[in-house]
């Protein structure tokens, strides 16, 4: 089937395929990732997983797949105290994602998958998807790419072993030297309850677990698993 990159295509090419296509929109963030990772990590990884999976799925998909440019800004206000962060408020991020969904519909699109790469975007994704679906009649699906991986205590974390390994696999130049660190202080949690506490990030210096244990081989394995799993989901969604 057809595979198009939205930003590389003409309006005529997009107009011809969008009514039958599944549009894939990676959604990341630009925010601090500790003292060792590039601030564009979430956009880099969401974009890489979405692009590789879409290209892999396209020959087997029952409809055209259109890869939209990655949205590189998300809801990251909780990282602002550390610097290095470009954040949208939750309200603005929800509105931006909703406007992009509206634009897909205006161009003739009927199906959208958001591939999220930032934990702070979870609520944004589902609120925007619900709103776009009811307002515009758009079929909107959402996946957080790490949810497609087998359970692992390191996944997803924030700038810890998982993300650092993934970035090493994609572009090792974006990872600075890492020093061993003691175990971050354990946060207080209540089973079955989602908690939002800005002080929790300050207690762990803005990043989780042990990035010094990361390695490119592990990152490549996680990346391959995420791409394979997302590719399979794309093929399923293209049948709907």
UniProtKB/TrEMBL annotation:
<feature type="region of interest" description="Disordered">
    <location>
        <begin position="176"/>
        <end position="195"/>
    </location>
</feature>
<keyword id="KW-0479">Metal-binding</keyword>
<comment type="similarity">
    <text>Belongs to the creatininase superfamily.</text>
</comment>
<dbReference type="GO" id="GO:0009231">
    <property type="term" value="P:riboflavin biosynthetic process"/>
</dbReference>
<dbReference type="Pfam" id="PF02633">
    <property type="entry name" value="Creatininase"/>
</dbReference>
<dbReference type="InterPro" id="IPR003785">
    <property type="entry name" value="Creatininase/forma_Hydrolase"/>
</dbReference>
<keyword id="KW-0862">Zinc</keyword>
<keyword id="KW-0378">Hydrolase</keyword>
<dbReference type="GO" id="GO:0046872">
    <property type="term" value="F:metal ion binding"/>
</dbReference>
<dbReference type="InterPro" id="IPR024087">
    <property type="entry name" value="Creatininase-like_sf"/>
</dbReference>
<dbReference type="GO" id="GO:0016811">
    <property type="term" value="F:hydrolase activity, acting on carbon-nitrogen (but not peptide) bonds, in linear amides"/>
</dbReference>
<protein>
    <submittedName>
        <fullName>Creatininase family protein</fullName>
    </submittedName>
</protein>
């Amino acid at each position: 089937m057809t595979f198009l990159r939205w930003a590389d295509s003409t309006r005529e090419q997009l107009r011809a395929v969008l009514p039958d296509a599944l549009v894939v929109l990676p959604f990341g963030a630009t925010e601090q990732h500790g003292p060792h990772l590039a601030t564009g990590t979430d956009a880099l990884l969401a974009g890489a997983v979405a692009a590789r999976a879409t290209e892999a799925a396209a020959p087997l998909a029952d409809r055209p797949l259109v890869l939209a440019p990655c949205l590189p800004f998300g809801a990251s206000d909780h990282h602002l105290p550390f610097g290095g962060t470009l954040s949208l408020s939750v309200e603005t991020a929800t509105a931006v994602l909703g406007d992009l969904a509206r634009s897909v519909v205006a161009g003739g699109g009927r199906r959208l998958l958001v591939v999220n790469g930032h934990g702070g975007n979870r609520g944004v994704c589902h609120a925007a998807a619900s709103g776009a679906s009811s307002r515009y009649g758009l079929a909107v699906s959402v996946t957080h790419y790490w949810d497609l991986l087998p359970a692992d205590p390191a996944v997803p974390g924030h700038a810890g072993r998982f993300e650092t390994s993934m970035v090493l696999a994609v572009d090792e130049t974006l990872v600075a030297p890492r020093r061993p660190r003691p175990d971050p202080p354990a946060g207080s949690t209540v089973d079955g309850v989602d908690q939002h506490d800005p002080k929790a990030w300050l207690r762990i210096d803005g990043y989780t677990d042990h990035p010094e244990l990361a390695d490119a081989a592990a990152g490549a394995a996680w990346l391959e698993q995420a791409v394979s799993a997302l590719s399979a989901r794309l093929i399923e969604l293209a049948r709907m």
